[in-house]
Write a structure and sequence with these properties.
Length: about 300
């Protein structure tokens, strides 16, 4: 199959991810026109000015009419509501995809909703930042990053292939994963780090009540580890509520490792403690990609 070029793409939620997707489509000429759908006309007009979309609509049902691809980039708690809302107006056979950070609950729900009225292909671009809004969007956001696609037994194979080519077309690396496996992996490499970042930030705030100087000591390591605590709270509320079990499992395993380190400290086992840090360094130096832009 040649690289698909959609006549019209509708993006619901033109923020960092949705805006970057629109910019990437336009940069690589993968869409004839891109329409943005949202609630704030000023923000949508700004998206036009920045080149993320060509036109906009406040009406999701009207906005998706005639679209070959519907891209949902809202907080995950809203995604299934939008799938249900736009289906009656969606072009027969169109592809509906999403950019949600959790997949199992969304894919199960979408499979029930779309049936044979459209083709749903779950997706999660492993790119982003703590910044929000279309002002932070970039046409190259997805380049050289992994873009997960999460087909189920109900996923249309032709739609999956088209999404595979679209992902390649915007410069990303498509990776097909089972939705449940995706959620377990995302809990470890994305969701737990956000919980830890928020927890460390709150811990420092609590410590400052007794020792106000603590925040004056903040330097590189604390800033790096808490950077994502600046992410939009509503996004992480929904992610945690739709992936609770996997996140809890990750927290339990993380607690086991932290307890292990504390036990080595209390036991005064210098070599074992050095080995504990050394094992982590080896993984960090040899297994992780040099540019970590995953969200």
């Amino acid at each position: 199959m040649s690289r698909p070029n959609f006549n019209c793409v509708a993006i619901i939620g033109v923020g960092l991810i949705g805006g970057s997707f629109g910019m990437a489509l336009k940069k690589h000429r993968l869409a004839g026109s891109v329409i943005g759908i949202g609630r704030n006309p000023d923000r949508l007009q700004r998206a036009v000015e920045l080149g993320a979309i060509d036109r906009w609509s406040l009406d999701a049902s009207a906005g998706v009419r005639g679209a070959d691809l519907i891209y949902i980039a809202t907080p995950v708690g809203l995604e299934l509501d939008f799938v249900q809302r736009v289906l009656p107006s969606a072009k027969p056979g169109c592809i509906i995809t999403d950019a949600g950070s959790t997949k199992a609950e969304i894919c199960r729900g979408a499979d029930v909703l779309v049936k044979d009225r459209a083709a749903f292909v779950g997706g999660h671009p492993m790119a982003g930042s703590e910044a929000a809004g279309v002002e932070a969007a970039r046409a190259d956001l997805f380049e050289d990053t992994t873009y997960v696609l999460t087909p189920t037994v109900h996923t249309d194979s032709e739609a999956l292939e088209k999404m595979h080519h679209i992902v390649e077309g915007i410069g990303a690396r498509p990776l097909a994963m089972d939705p449940e496996i995706h959620d377990r992996c995302a809990a470890v490499i994305s969701h737990l780090p956000h919980v830890i970042a928020a927890g460390l930030t709150l811990l420092a705030q609590e410590e400052s009540a007794a020792n106000p100087q603590v925040l004056e000591l903040v330097a590189g390591s604390f800033r790096d580890m808490t950077r994502v605590a600046g992410s939009p709270p509503v996004l992480w509320r929904d992610i945690c509520l739709t992936n609770t079990k996997a996140i809890k499992d990750a927290v339990d395993e993380f607690r086991r490792l932290i307890d292990q380190a504390v036990a080595l400290m209390e036991g005064g086992d210098a070599q074992a403690l050095e080995d504990w840090f050394g094992a982590a360094k080896i993984v960090r130096d040899t297994r992780l990609p040099p540019d970590d832009r995953g969200a």
